[in-house]
Amino acid sequence: MPTHEKKFGQAGPVLNMLLNIGTVFLLLATVIMILEGLSRYVLNVSYFWAEESVRFLMIWAFSLTIGIAGFRKMHIRTELLVQRFPIKIQRLCWLLSCVTGIVFALVLIYSSFPQAVRYYKMGIVSESNLELPMWLLYLAMPIAGFGLFWYYIKAAIFAWKVGDPFATNEEPSDEQGADNSKTQTSNPLL
Amino acid sequence: MTLILAAIGLLVLMALGAHVATTMGLISSVMTITMDGVPIVVIAQTAFKSINSYPLMAVPMFILMGNIMMRGNIVFILVELIGTLVRFFKGGLALTVMLACVFFAAISGSSVASASAIGASTVEELKRERYPAEFSAALVAVGGTLGLMIPPSLGFILIGSIVGIPVDKLFIAGIVPGLFEAALLLITTYVICRRKGYGTANSSIDLSGFVRKLPRSTGALSMPVLIMGSIYFGLFTPTEVSAVAAGFAIVLCVYIYRTMQWRDVWVISKESVMQSSMIFAVVLGGSLIGFVLSRMGASQALVALMVELNMQPWQFLLMANIILLVLGMFLDGVAMIVLTAPLLFPIATQLGINPIHFAVIMVANVEIATLTPPIGLNLFVMSSIAKIPVESVVKGVLPFFVTRIVALGILTYVPWLSLVLL
Q: Which residues of chain B does A37 touch, with a Cβ-Cβ cutoff of 8 Å?
């Protein structure tokens, strides 16, 4: 494909697989909460594992999908001022946005990975009755950092070589992108 | 001085198009790293803690529910039913659309989602009855904002998670203000239609049509009852009800109305998880900003300043409204809440303002923010759906905007409206 026809949005099979896993986590969390709510209301029985497992499933869903959410142009930004600049300045702004993301992603990885390792070495478990290994829960943070890092690196390369990686009028071109384009994205939410 | 520089850096980066979440994250990380005696691991700990919140878990499930109801074309069913009762008024279809907005607000926590769903379903019908396009677009843009005030509201969940107010109380507090705003908007719609001669009127109420359509609408109508009833009577926690409502929405759309298949549920779930990630990312960035502000004593300094200036609660509320209205012109609602809540709530509490009342005021401002250019999201949504320029939507919104400002004033200075059900 010629460079000028390339469109940004291909997340690749790995991130698509992570999105599928994250979606399963969301649905699983929903089912667990339904069970907990109905059981508490009907049988007056509450499951000790419900609240914690839902929290951790959703944290992992977040960490697995934060990168692909970028590829799908979900993250909030303001482009009003940038659009008024000449294209060269716009390119600088795109790159600046990418650098901001890359540096923050690195900070997130650098600050969280040693903590996950520390939890692993010390064998610390969560405070609740579930007693999940904390390193496994905490690993979600560096994973989220890696997801963001990958997204911003790809976006920076695209901004450098092709054009606006944040433009929302382009349809992603891999399988998931096609799925997503069928449903009208209403973003941001509030 | 450091804080001022950081605020300038934050605003400049955002203005230059950097993502809100990463900008907040980076600026606050830089400040944390440069603080004496604060290890870098605090950044990860604060980030993890911010999203490891049980009330916040309601966000993905309410998003899932709202998306399912939106794509399941539930609005058609509501519009048909309401129309049988309301369309004998002059401008009855416009009133029907506004009432549909109220109902959809009670099953969706988002302003933009409400406007998208109702706009896509009703703009053509309004056009057929010769309503001007700018009025139709404005009607839905304004009505959609009720999704933020009438529970379930994503805005209230965010405020509750950040400030630590029980989300169920915030939901209950939003009911009367939401209905109050809806009543004012209905009156405005009626007056505009009467004065400008918009729309047609049926000769009488279509009671037989209502009775015929009611059974099919029961499922859709029972959703707000399920959500508000279970929270009000304390049957479920907000997180539980978000899951039950999402499950019920799937059953409604897949098995009862048959407006979607399981394949669609999967696609919508994928989209919902990514939208939730986006919100979680902003919350994460905002929590880091909150940490820095707290560590540097910014909130305490502001509180001390207010005390020193002998600021009265009414003066603070006026100032807060002006700040939020101005910020709302340039910031998205999530960012607005995440950035301002950690600063404004401590001051409000110190001045004796009920934090639940203040949360309602903040959400009312976010509602208006979705209507104010240059970044009024509902304006863009309706411009795209009605296929008219954003300027035309703005022109149509102006009379409603006056109503919204009046409503904001009343909600601000009559706390009874926010606290009566608590």
A: 236-237, 240-241, 243-244
| pLDDT, tens digit, 9 for 90 and up, residues B274-313 | 999 998 999 999 899 988 988 888 888 888 888 888 899 9
How many Cβ atoms from other residues are within 10 Å of residue B264's Cβ?
18
**CA distance linking residue A129 with residue B335, whole number of Å:** 35
* Closest residue to A69, CB basis, from B64, B274, B381: B274
Write out chain A residues lying below 8 Å of B110, CB-based. Answer: 186, 189-190
Q: Does B150 touch chain A (CB under 8 A)?
A: no
DSSP symbols for A75-131: S----TTGGGS-HHHHHHHHHHHHHHHHHHHHHHHHHHHHHHHHHHHHT-B-SSTT-
Tokens of B340: 């301002």
Read off the pTM: 0.88
Spatial distance between the Cα atoms of B18 and B10, rounded to a whole number of angstroms: 9
CA distance A167 to A58: 28
Interface mutation vs chain A, best among B19, B284, B379, most A CBs within 10 Å: B19
SS3 A7: coil
- A59 with B110: Cβ contact below 8 A: no
Q: What is the pLDDT of residues B41-74, one digit of tens each?
A: 999 999 999 999 889 999 999 999 988 988 888 8
